[in-house]
Design brief:
Shape: globular
Strand content: 25-35%
Radius of gyration: 22 Å
Structural class: alpha/beta
Oligomer: single chain
Number of helices: 13
Number of strands: 28
Number of domains: 2
Helix content: 25-40%
């Protein structure tokens, strides 16, 4: 018993506004566990078309047939029979912020979502537990043909588009948790940018999981047509509970010819969360996908955004930061597939570990036979803040073509005691000295984010150094 307690104990930092819990006031909640009856109940609650129910049931069968992956982080304590897969908040979706119930509105107010909307966003979606509770988009974008809505609305109002793209890039048979997502998905965002339209300000969706012992399975589907441009921001957080929560969302990004999509994420899940998200993009001729990813929270993460460069001249950029502290095993990275000639990719990742945390970079770079004259640069840097922490990198490179230019660089190191001593000799505390070094280390990510999100990122770093609670 003593060993088990040591194994499951997760020390946590005081996360301020992110850890404020709301009293649970759901209008509907499924039973814990996963079976056909629960899937039918979810679909009925959503009043879905028959094809979506059939899709869910086929996904459930795939989930039941696949084993839990054992090649990455330890998932042995994750028991689906204890996870509630659907929690409907006590409201339907609103288009006016004033109409959102006070308890939910106060949560997003604390997180700065309405303020961000007023100051720098072209549209906002806010999801609370399993459903989107608020959505808005600037009228000028609607007139240009931009669609930005929740996935439930999209299934009904844009059914043909959804049916054409939904889980075609991440099919349920991809892995066990993709199948789980296909069975119980709920909420998320649907974005369609018509050809030639440039969305000058970002769109943002924020996902807040409040219910203890629940899962969140939002689906994000973005289609950026020929020559269009978009920056989409995703934010995630949840308060700390003493029970396991699960996040198994899915992101599918379709970047068409000459189009550009930047997809930015800061994930700040609490340390009782298993974050098993799947993100994938496919890029056509001369298109560009830019990933900006910050992973701070969760007990366990397995997350590897994938870019498939399908068209000649397609380009992928990936900038990622992972911060693992006590009780965290963050297994993250990215996957790039060069499937066409003259494609280029640049990967720049930073991993930080402290207080016994484990940061693991797992990357894949694959070059197909016909992808001649492609170029790729991969840089992985790891920083350990003490002698209790761990950091590993496994960069896999598979090449089927010799006419290419590929570079890879990896560095693992510790903070220099001399640097800490120098800063402390100038009157700076040890805590602040370490935070300063880390902020400098993650600067590439900070520069890639809009100002208000860069401020949030630095605040998360500061929280990590303000001490922990028992």
């Amino acid at each position: 018993m003593e060993n088990k307690q040591q194994k499951t104990y997760v020390e946590d930092i005081e996360r301020g506004i992110y850890d404020v819990k709301d009293k649970e006031q759901s209008s509907f909640k499924s039973q814990a566990g996963l079976n056909e009856e629960i899937i039918r109940e979810i679909s009925k609650e959503k009043d879905e078309p028959e094809w979506m129910l059939e899709f869910r049931l086929k996904s459930l069968a795939i989930f039941d047939s696949k084993p839990v992956p054992t090649w990455g982080a330890d998932l042995s304590e994750l028991d689906m029979q204890n996870i509630i897969t659907y929690v409907r908040p006590n409201t339907d979706m609103k288009q006016s912020w004033d109409e959102v119930p006070e308890d939910i509105k106060n949560t997003f107010d604390r997180l700065g979502i309405p303020k961000a909307e007023r100051e720098s966003l072209a549209g906002v979606g806010a999801q609370y537990d399993s459903e989107v509770v608020y959505h808005s988009i600037q009228e000028a974008l609607v007139k240009e043909g931009v669609i930005y809505t929740d996935m439930e609305t999209a299934v009904k109002e844009h059914e043909a588009l959804v049916k054409e793209y939904f889980m075609k890039l991440v099919p349920p048979n991809d892995h066990k948790f993709a199948a789980l997502h296909g069975a119980v998905w709920s909420g998320g965002s649907f974005v369609y940018i018509p050809a030639g339209v440039e969305v000058k300000f970002p769109l943002q969706s924020y996902f807040r999981l409040n219910a203890p012992g629940a899962g969140q399975f939002e689906h994000t589907l973005i289609i950026v047509e020929k020559g269009a441009k978009l920056h989409f921001i995703e934010g995630c957080s949840a308060p700390k509970y003493d029970v396991t929560n699960l996040h198994a969302g899915c992101v599918e990004l379709y970047v068409k010819e000459d189009a550009t999509l930047r997809y930015s994420t800061i994930e700040n899940w609490s340390r009782n969360m298993y974050n098993l998200n799947t993100k994938r993009s496919v890029v056509d001729k001369n298109g560009t996908i830019e990933w900006v990813s910050g992973s701070f929270g969760s007990k366990v993460s397995m997350l590897y955004p994938m870019s498939i460069l399908k068209g000649e001249g397609a380009r992928a950029e990936f900038t990622g930061v992972t911060f693992a502290a006590s009780g965290q095993h963050l297994d993250t990275g990215c996957k790039i597939v060069h499937a066409a000639p003259y494609t280029t990719s640049n990967v720049n990742t930073k991993s930080i570990s402290k207080d016994g945390g484990y940061a693991f970079y797992r990357g894949l770079l694959r070059v197909s036979k016909n992808a001649h004259h492609c170029k790729s640069t991969v840089s992985c840097e790891s920083l350990m803040l003490d002698n209790k922490s761990k950091s590993d990198t496994v960069p896999i490179i598979e090449v089927d073509n010799d006419n290419i230019d590929i570079g890879h660089e990896a560095k693992i190191g510790r903070i220099s005691d001399d640097v800490i001593f120098y800063l402390m000799s100038r009157g700076i505390s040890e805590e602040e000295a370490k935070a300063m070094i880390v902020r400098g280390f993650v600067e590439p990510l900070t520069k890639a984010l809009p100002l208000e999100y860069a401020v949030e990122l630095n605040q998360l770093i500061n929280l990590e150094f303000e001490g922990s609670i028992g």
